[in-house]
Specification:
Length: 1221
């Protein structure tokens, strides 16, 4: 509607501005009618006609003198209002502007071919690239007439190309019906929905799909296709480009298209000579849900139209090279990459990578780099353009290149090495290049004499490699050895060389020339961004071995561990690591510069080194002082002793050499203290100002103004729906303050909550406070007697313990212990708030919901370390659980239910609402049991006891449906002694999956015969002993219907045996209605015997089971022996059958006690909730001699493991039959 109002306003403005002479104002209304009847976006025109009519009635549209001007005004107005440049109003005084032309399909074939020849051009370019230019898209009617000729004359010549350039830069016209043909040639045979076209005049929508069959072959999906576009590409050609782009079937190269329409009509406005060009149809892509109209098709690769063809050729050149490039990279990785275990995964990954979006060499290089590094996680493995600089490796001289003249050798040493002794006996050594190890050996006497001897006795040594451009790595182990003790040997690093397939370990070298510097004195290595190759390795190893402090700039990150190879088919090289460097910690060094312990500008590094040397002189005393403070004050003495030992060891091992100032020392000490103790509360920190220590002071009674502030700031209360109280306080105040303001607190806070049915205490934002008020606060939630032990505090300063108890006398009333209490926590809940929460959890007085708490301390002492600006915070108290006597974990309080803190309140409300329903659920469950449980002697008693359990608080802590199901099922089974009485919960989204009995469809006799053969297993053993196994009892009605088949395929096989084994070990029960039928076969026809009495509680009826008089087939009779095999899996109807034959003495039972199922059960919904209870509704009335089998199972005559029962039965029957003979 906003568009319409704007349109009317624009038209009124322009017509007013230009009014001079009479023109019918109805012209605007007629234009509106044309748009309403034809414009392809009718939803943008709602209300336009009415708005214009109202404007006319108000006389707001005046007349305009000149027709051309009016046309321009109307064009500007309608385009601006509807944001559609395709809407154009024109004036034609001569009348009709349309010329009638013969439809293309009506032209003769030769004329059609001539026309197509002028609008279609093809050729085969270098590299077997097809080129097809189409300036007009022909429609279905023309294709049907000349399609075969076009396929033969043009398409068949293009089919053999490796890729195709489809040039639509000059395509401005076409037929919509031709879209599906063009697109289909580039797709597979399965139809794809590619466009939906809405036509307003007919108010119809048509879907366009690709065709399943075509004239000629398809270009297929694997060949590259590039579509060229320009700002002149319009209409049908735009649609084709848009579809192919979003099907990811073509790359669009060129300019953004015109943004035209599939169908534009030039329509007369009323009876005037004005016309308006209107898009009457619009495309809606099913792929994107959007349209290319107005905005045009945006190219994948933007370029000028006249350069698009050359750009397309370049793109195809790169894309055609991809297989060759991938193969070249594959061969290089297979032959050289040092991580041989990663090569198969890398090769598989790059071979299956999608390269379809590549449009340049840069894209290909970027894609390969991303894929290689994401899989290998190795930054050394990299591809670069050939013109990018990469490391040139020059051969370093060896000993063979040196002269033998001693004077020349001495002069060489004097030139390479610079040595000095600084103040305070600090040695300084600079050398700017690493030589081959053989060179150092040959120069050994001169180096020891002129370089090493002057510095070997210094207190500390500065090694300056800021200007060291590196060299071969062979001398690194030799140099490292001088900075370690002679024994024991120290492992330095391992190198794996892929070129030689050798792994070499490097350790300290024995028999060094000269005296080693050893491992105890300080070494300081100066670096810069110029430090490279072997110099970097030396700095890295001295740092990782904890043998030196590195000071200066991050090094260059250039290693001699890689080789570069030209990649065939592309202007790029790949740098592949051929050496793996594994340090003494087992870590792979993957390059990247060495990060100094102290990062400063290279020119400031020497000065910084001197500062660090002086600082290091004080470190040991600071570490020792920290250990002493821990031994004196830390609340857990045995842990503090361990900490002292660990700190001493780490100092001796040089692990504090990376510390360069007080801040880094504080960080390292904190890390070591926490790691050793497992206590995150230990903290060392640096401060220029001595921290304020709060001494115990007598509490000041607040003034009335302060009292109001305390209550309003600390306490927030609310009575929520359902009479649920809410109390939030964000700090634990001192007990003396609480006592002082007690009456006001009781009146203004506590009494508001006292009569609620349950209470939520929100501790999520309570981060600190005093623990002295905890006993008082806890006491309000317990009875006065007995006094409850909350927890015990051990204080290191006194080495004494203090039990914390509830208080027998408090101000105001207590909150009934029978009422539910919830405590909300977050990761910020700390200190005294944690102690309160943990005590209430330990004593099972509250349900804690939220996040684990911070794990703070009740009391922390802050101590200065050796008169420095370092301080250590040490917990000097620990809390012991009143339940276990063990120290409370420093990891915080673990809630009963862990959720995000911001979700805790909503979860509490859900639990509260759920708990309010528990009473009703239990009452309904009890009623269902009383009315339906087969054992009516105890059903009413179960119901009564269940309610009694609830009233005694047994269900008070239930917080979820699963907890209620478990608790309720256990209670029902404990009260009844029947495991078949159980409860289940079905969430709303799973109710449809609750199993129900489905009507059984009787199959054909042929199918049933096969089913019987599969379901029943028979055999005849030695001494003519029959065997029958079936694993489920069927309905009597079904048995009767298929009795002839059962007799024929089962019963006749065993009827003439001398004895029979019935195997019910795997029988899962089934219908009880078939029991009487089957049992009757084991009695004589003239014997009518009552088998059992079945009582049904819901119907309150007792049904007698008798043997049947008439049966299909012969009876087995009463004289032949029958043995029944049972197991703990035998259940339900099978147990009833076993029970009957055992009771009447017709069978010997061998095996295991049966499962103790039930005759039949029924599942009831509990009062419209999502809870269901399964209740045994029928029972056997048992025998005079003892109880029935439900819930306890049938005990066999002879107990035997189920796996051995068959053999035992054979043994018994064979012995019995042998005795008869």
């Amino acid at each position: 509607m906003a568009r319409v109002v704007y349109l009317v306003v624009v038209l009124i403005f322009f017509t007013n501005a230009l009014s001079q002479e009479n023109f019918q104002p109805n012209l605007v209304l007629d234009m509106a009618n044309v748009l309403l009847d034809n414009y392809c976006f009718p939803e943008n025109l709602i209300g336009m006609k009415e708005a214009i009519e109202q404007a006319i009635r108000n006389g707001e549209i005046l007349q305009i003198s000149e027709p051309g001007t009016l046309a321009a005004v109307l064009t500007a107005g309608v385009q601006d209002a509807l944001n559609d440049p395709r809407l154009i109003v024109s004036y034609h005084p001569t009348g009709s502007v349309f010329s009638q032309s013969l439809p293309l399909a009506d032209l003769p074939v030769q004329q059609l071919l001539l026309m197509i020849h002028n609008s279609v051009h093809y050729e085969i370019l270098e590299g077997n690239i097809g080129y097809l230019r189409i300036d007009h898209i022909i429609g279905e009617d023309v294709i049907q007439k000349v399609g075969a000729l076009l396929v033969k004359g043009i398409w068949s010549n293009i089919m053999g190309t490796s890729s195709l350039i489809l040039d639509l830069r000059y395509s401005t016209t076409g037929q919509v019906s031709g879209i599906t043909y063009v697109v289909s040639y580039f797709c597979e045979t399965d139809p794809i929905h590619i466009d939906t076209i809405y036509d307003h005049p007919s108010n119809s929508t048509k879907e366009i799909w690709t065709l399943a069959s075509l004239l000629g072959e398809r270009y297929g999906k694997d060949k590259d296709v590039i579509v060229l576009t320009s700002r002149y590409t319009e209409g049908v050609a735009e649609d084709i480009a848009y579809i192919l782009k979003h099907l990811h079937r073509a790359i669009i190269v060129g300019e953004r298209t015109a943004g035209g329409s599939l169908n534009i009509d030039k329509l007369k406005i009323g009876e005037s000579n004005f016309y308006i060009t209107v898009p009457v149809a619009r495309s809606i892509s099913p792929i994107t849900g959007q349209s290319w109209e107005v905005n045009g098709v945006f190219p994948c690769v933007p370029t000028r139209a006249d350069e698009a063809l050359d750009k397309a050729k370049s793109i195809l050149s790169v894309r055609s090279a991809v297989p060759k490039v991938v193969q070249a990279v594959t061969e290089i990785l297979k032959g050289y990459y040092s991580f041989t275990d990663r090569v198969p995964t890398l090769l598989q990954h790059i071979s299956f990578t999608d390269y379809s979006a590549l449009t340049s060499e840069e894209d290909l290089i970027s894609k390969l780099n991303y894929e290689l590094q994401s899989v290998s996680e190795d930054p050394r493995l990299i591809i670069k353009l050939t013109d990018e600089s990469h490391l040139t490796i020059e051969d370093s001289p060896t000993a063979n290149n040196l002269p033998n003249d001693l004077a020349l050798l001495q002069a060489l040493v004097d030139t390479v090495f610079k040595v000095n002794i600084l103040a305070e006996n600090i040695g300084y050594l600079r050398f700017d290049e690493f030589a081959d190890a053989s060179v150092l050996v040959k120069l050994g006497p001169q180096i020891v004499n002129k370089v090493w001897d002057p510095i070997k006795n210094t207190e500390n040594l500065i090694i300056d490699i800021r200007y060291n451009t590196g060299g071969p790595s062979t001398a690194v182990p030799l140099l490292l050895s001088y900075f370690h003790d002679l024994s024991p040997p120290v492992y330095f690093f391992t190198v794996y060389n892929r070129l030689t397939n050798n792994t070499t370990e490097y350790s300290t070298i024995p028999n060094l020339r000269g005296q080693p510097y050893g491992s105890k004195r300080g070494v300081y290595v100066l670096t810069s961004h110029h430090t490279t190759t072997a110099a970097e390795e030396f700095a890295y190893l001295m740092q990782s071995l904890s043998r030196a402090t590195v000071i200066g700039e991050i090094t260059s990150g250039t290693l001699l561990h890689s080789r570069s190879f030209q990649i065939e088919g592309i202007n790029a090289v790949i740098t592949v690591p051929v050496i793996n460097f594994i340090d003494n910690n087992g870590e792979y060094w993957l390059g990247g510069g060495v990060v100094p312990d102290a990062i400063v500008l290279a020119e400031e590094a020497l000065h910084k080194a001197l500062e660090v040397i002086h600082f290091h002189g004080d470190i040991y005393k600071l570490i020792e002082s920290t250990a002493n403070l821990m031994e004196v004050h830390y609340a857990i003495p045995e842990v503090s002793a361990k900490i002292s030992s660990v700190l001493q060891t780490k100092w001796s091992d040089g692990l504090y050499r990376s510390v360069v100032d007080y801040e880094s020392l504080a960080s390292q000490l904190t890390s070591d203290l926490q790691e050793t103790s497992g206590d995150h509360r230990l903290l060392v920190f640096f401060s220029d100002i001595e921290p304020e220590v709060h001494e115990d002071q007598s509490s000041k009674v607040p003034s009335p103004e302060e009292l109001n502030y305390i209550i309003e700031a600390l306490f927030k209360t609310e009575i929520m729906p359902g009479n649920v109280g809410y109390l939030r306080f964000d700090m634990m105040a001192e007990a003396e303050i609480i006592k002082a303001v007690g009456p006001q607190l009781i009146n203004r806070v506590w009494n508001k909550l006292l009569n609620t049915d349950m209470l939520i205490i929100d501790m999520r934002y309570n981060t600190a406070g005093y623990s002295t008020a905890i006993p008082l606060l806890c006491s309000y939630f317990f009875d006065a007697e007995p006094i409850r032990h909350l927890y015990t505090i051990f204080d290191r300063s006194t080495s004494g313990t203090s039990p914390i108890m509830t208080i027998p006398q408090i101000l105001g009333q207590r909150y009934s212990p029978k009422k539910d209490l919830f405590i909300l926590t977050s990761h910020m809940t700390g200190s005294a708030a944690e102690a309160f929460t943990r005590a209430m959890k330990d004593l099972e007085r509250a349900t804690v919901i939220g996040e684990p708490t911070v794990g703070g301390s009740l009391s922390v002492g802050t101590y200065r370390i050796n008169n420095s600006n370092l301080y250590v915070s040490i917990p000097n108290q620990v809390v012991l659980s009143a339940i276990t006597g063990k120290v409370w974990s420093v990891s915080g309080v673990e809630p009963h239910i862990i959720v995000q803190a911001n979700d805790a309140m909503s979860l509490v409300h859900r639990i509260v609402n759920f708990r309010l329903r528990i009473s009703s659920i239990l009452q309904n469950v009890g009623q269902l049991v009383a009315e339906n449980y087969a054992f009516d002697q105890i059903s009413a008693d179960i119901s009564t006891k269940l309610i009694s359990l609830y009233e005694s608080g047994n269900y008070k802590k239930i917080s979820s449906e699963s907890e209620l199901v478990k608790k309720l099922s256990n209670d029902l089974q404990a009260l009844s002694g029947d495991k078949n009485l159980k409860v289940a919960y079905a969430p709303e989204n799973s109710k449809d999956h609750i199993l129900a009995a489905a009507p059984f469809q009787i199959p054909s006799p042929e199918v049933f015969a096969d089913l019987i053969k599969f379901s029943f297993h028979t055999d005849v053993f030695e001494n003519n002993i029959g065997y029958l196994r079936f694993d489920m009892f069927g309905e009597s009605e079904l048995i009767i219907q298929v009795s002839d088949l059962l007799v024929e395929h089962v019963w006749k096989k065993i009827i003439n045996t001398n004895a029979l084994i019935l195997d019910l070990r795997y029988n899962i029960g089934g219908s009880t209605s078939g029991i009487a039928v089957f049992a009757s076969y084991f009695f004589d026809e003239n014997q009518r015997i009552i088998l059992d009495k079945i009582y049904n509680q819901p119907k309150n009826t007792t049904t007698e089971l008798w043997t049947l008089g008439k049966l299909r087939g012969e009876r087995y009779g009463v004289k032949k022996d029958v043995v029944i095999l049972t197991s703990s899996m035998t259940t339900g109807a099978a147990e009833e059958f076993v029970h009957i034959l055992k009771k009447v003495g017709r069978a010997l039972i061998v095996g295991e006690t049966t499962s103790g199922g039930c005759l039949s059960s029924q599942t009831f919904n509990v009062a419209g909730t999502q809870f269901y209870i399964t209740i045994p509704t029928s029972r056997s009335e048992g025998s005079p001699d003892g109880p029935s089998w439900e819930g306890v199972g049938v005990t066999p005559h002879i107990e035997e493991a189920a796996s051995h029962a068959l053999e035992k039965a054979k043994e018994i029957l064979q012995s019995h039959l042998h005795g008869r003979t």
